[in-house]
Amino acid sequence: MKFPILAYGHPNLRKVAKDITPDYPDLQQLIDDMFEAMYESNGVGLAAPQIDQSIRLFVIDAEPFAELDESMTETQKAQLKGQKVFINAQILEESGKEWAFTEGCLSIPGINEDVTRQEKIKIKYLDRDFNEHIEEIDGLLARVIQHEYDHLDGILFTDHLSSFKKRLLKRKLENISKGKVNVDYRMKFPKNNNK
């Protein structure tokens, strides 16, 4: 894997990412490398800030979720399948009822918690060829997009947890930031604690 995943506590995970233009250096290779890093670490999404690139780019392949929920429509299952690239994305609207789902994050290994998000989004973004799209998306794909989109604004899924839950997780989070975590992919830890 070319890029290590930044671990919880790394200050660059908290930066607000910047928009990019079509002439961004080696963009297509970066996108391919991000998919490679995502697959090698068994993720369904990866945002550029997680590989220390502070740009508004994330990739998704949420196909593993397609068989997760029996109540999903065929349209929702189809939405989850295949590689998707989001450049300079803007969530224009979030709507629908709030629902909880257990989320995890490659930057926060070993921690999975219920996060409440709205069920529908309207999003404007550019694909890998810089074609503009405006789409309304719901269900699990909307959730994966919301999670990755948060990374572009320096937000982690743990920020959505109650202060009580954060206190319960404090030691685990500190251990991740110190590199005291077992993962089967490369990570980059804060304070030069590289593993």
Task: Tell me what the structure shows.
This protein has 195 residues and is an alpha+beta fold. It has helices spanning 27-40, 74-80, 139-152, 163-177; strands spanning 5-6, 45-47, 57-60, 84-105, 108-126, 132-138, 187-188. Strands 2-3-4-5-6 form a 5-stranded antiparallel beta sheet, sandwiched between helices. The longest helix has 15 residues, at 163-177. The two termini are 14 Å apart. The model has no long low-confidence stretch (mean pLDDT 92).
Quickly count the domains. 1
Q: What is the level-2 CATH architecture name?
A: Alpha-Beta Complex
For the largest sheet, list the strands in their spatial order: 2-3-4-5-6
CATH topology: Peptide Deformylase
CA gyration radius, whole angstroms? 16 Å
Number of helices: 4
Instruction: Please trace the helix and strand order, writing H or E for each element.
Output: EHEEHEEEHHE
Overall geometry: globular
The percentage of residues in β strands lies in 25-35%
What is the CATH homologous superfamily assignment?
A: Peptide deformylase
CATH class identity: Alpha Beta
Point out poorly predicted stretches: none
| Mean pLDDT over the full residue set | 92
How far is the N terminus from the C terminus?
Answer: 14 Å
**Structural classification:** alpha+beta
Instruction: Tell me the total number of β-strands.
Output: 7
| Assembly of the depicted chains | single chain
Helical content band: 25-40%
